[in-house]
Design goal:
four-stranded antiparallel beta sheet; nine-stranded antiparallel beta sheet; 566 residues; 25 strands; alpha+beta
Length: 566
């Protein structure tokens, strides 16, 4: 729906409102024409139902207005003496059209000074819940949104199991484009697991003013451009989703509009210079760790490595033992003489499980293991006398990688050697030909809504021959700090400006072993109540929060005690 269509839609709503309420406006001592003038009619209605004029603002905020409309409908009929629970439900279930019946079929009188206090405890409870939901939805949609890190693409800067608060006001909150959606959930309703929104009508894209632009090194939450999944981690037929209902991703911005970006041996170069990451960034790459005596899992764990597999050799197991082992295994191989080769994650098989199942296991410390390491981990392992060598794994330049943007045989790029590539800037023009088309086809067709085709050696844009193209919005290049285990712009390309959601500002909780079952969760106390941005090692503010909380309870207790004495 474009702006013209949206204006027409609003005018239709105004006509519907006028036809259903003009007689009620007159009975309340107002003029009939006051029911049809946009915005003004809402202000007058607030006066009629004896509610604050600033409520009108809520009626024009997407998503919030969906919560407020039923409240206004109920308040309207109650202002004319229709107070029964049945009528309240009727006006909600008919989407407000029960007001037409009150307007034309009933001889109602305006109750000018009606009581606004709920007459029952249930009514008071419902009223409190409604406005709590409105307030929470307002904050969630336009200011701060909670987010949890589900995958390791930013390890070890942001870790799996980090619970974040994401600021939407730093870059300016994106007003919802999907107008009909359940509040405070994303694309799927909990429990019932069905879609939480309607595809139509859609609002045009609009972003509120922010106080900063997306810059290189910023950690950014954005709507995944390539998203067609209905539910994350579930294989099924893809769906077409509105921008604001695409799955949220979090990565580091390494390229901004107008930049030329290239990756050489895993390092990012922007405009010919190597990108210097912030001091809180902890990028990690895959390394081959070798030891003649075997690389032990205990040593890797002590160094801080968590993304590795462990191998055990086991005697033949019975059915009961197999069932007990199953939840810990990534896979197994059958060996000679009935023995098994068992593979697990870094936690391995707990000792109490081995004992209770009466298993005969021996862990194999292989001579060479490939693991993702930060610079600090690399240094620690190289300084350890038990390790012979630590060698970075690099895909050589010119070797085409798997699932690498733009998925075209002209471009033999991979994760470690990629580009150079231009990051589009709004208003800038690039030559359009068969060589450049693969890089920008998705932008031109999917993000900027043009038709594009090839006729011989010519590119047709909206049915006409085109030799160049001018971009309509800015684009960004996003990558994970866990460089060899991150699906990012190297796989699906540019991130449009209208897909930007916000930036993480605060970790309020963090669990180790988050994906290994709740029984294995361990609180990372050093990460609780730490800021995401800034310089130096993150500092936890948890103790200050506890002191503030205790202080509040003491103050509240003393205040109430003094009130009782009076």
């Amino acid at each position: 729906m474009d702006i013209t269509q949206w204006i027409i839609f609003i005018l239709i709503i105004q006509v519907i409102h006028f036809l259903g309420t003009w007689k009620l406006y007159v009975k309340a001592g107002r003029k009939a024409w006051e029911a049809i003038i946009p915005i003004y009619n809402a202000i007058v209605l607030m006066q009629i139902i004896n509610r604050p004029k600033w409520w009108v603002i809520f009626l024009f905020i997407p998503i919030i207005n969906l919560l407020m409309f039923p409240v206004i409908w109920i308040e309207t009929i109650r202002s004319f003496g229709r107070n029964s629970t049945l009528e309240s439900w009727l006006v909600i279930l008919t989407l407000g059209f029960y007001i037409y019946y009150v307007n034309y079929a009933l001889d109602v009188k305006y109750v000018e000074n009606r009581s606004l206090t709920p007459k029952t405890a249930m009514g008071e409870w419902v009223s409190s819940i409604v406005f709590a939901i409105v307030a929470a939805t307002l904050v969630h949609t336009y200011f701060i949104q909670p987010y949890v890190i589900p995958t390791g693409s930013l390890e070890r800067t942001l870790r799996v199991g980090d619970f974040l608060f994401v600021s939407k006001f730093h870059y300016g909150a994106r007003t919802p484009m999907t107008t009909v959606a359940a509040p405070m959930v994303h694309d799927t309703l909990p429990i019932v697991k069905t879609r939480s929104y309607l595809n139509k009508p859609q609002l045009p894209y609009f972003r509120l003013p922010g106080f900063k632009k997306v810059k290189k090194n910023d950690i950014v939450v954005f709507s995944w451009p390539a998203d067609t999944v209905r539910v994350f981690f579930k294989k099924e037929k893809g769906v077409k989703k509105p921008i604001d209902k695409k799955s949220n991703y979090v990565k580091r911005c390494v390229g901004t509009p107008g930049d030329s970006l290239e990756i050489k041996d895993g390092f990012v170069f922007v405009n010919g210079k190597q990108l210097k990451l912030s001091d809180r960034a902890k990028p990690q790459y895959d390394y081959k760790v070798y030891s003649q005596k075997g690389v032990s899992s205990k040593l890797l764990a002590k160094t801080g490595v968590v993304d590795f597999t462990r191998k055990y050799i086991s005697n033949q197991v019975n059915q009961q033992q197999a069932q007990g082992l199953n939840k810990y295994l990534l896979g197994y191989n059958q060996l000679e003489k009935g023995k098994l080769e068992l593979y697990t994650k870094h936690l391995g098989i707990p000792k109490d499980v081995i004992k209770s199942l009466r298993l005969s296991l021996k862990e194999v410390a292989e001579r060479q293991r490939m693991v993702p390491l930060t610079d600090e981990m690399v240094t620690a392992l190289r300084n350890n006398p038990a390790i012979d060598s630590v060698v970075k794994v690099i895909e050589p330049a010119g070797q085409k990688g798997f699932n690498i943007f733009p998925q075209d045989p002209q471009y033999a790029w991979n994760n470690d050697n990629f580009g150079p590539i231009y990051i589009p800037e709004k208003g800038k023009t690039i030559p359009l030909n068969l060589q450049t088309l693969p890089l920008y086809k998705k932008i031109i067709r999917d993000y900027e809504k043009n038709t594009i085709s090839i006729s011989g050696n010519q590119v047709l844009l909206n049915g006409k021959v085109a030799n160049n193209y001018t971009f309509k919005q800015d684009y960004y290049w996003m990558m994970g700090d866990n460089r060899d285990h991150s699906e990012d712009s190297r796989a699906w390309g540019y991130v449009p400006d209208n897909h930007i959601v916000g930036t993480p500002i605060f970790i309020w909780m963090s669990f180790d072993n988050f994906t290994d079952g709740i029984s294995n969760w361990k609180v990372r106390w050093d990460r609780v109540f730490t800021t995401v941005n800034g310089n130096g090692e993150p500092q936890s503010y948890f103790k200050y929060f506890i002191l503030l909380l205790v202080g509040w309870f003491v103050f509240d207790f003393v205040r109430k005690k003094r009130k009782v004495k009076k």
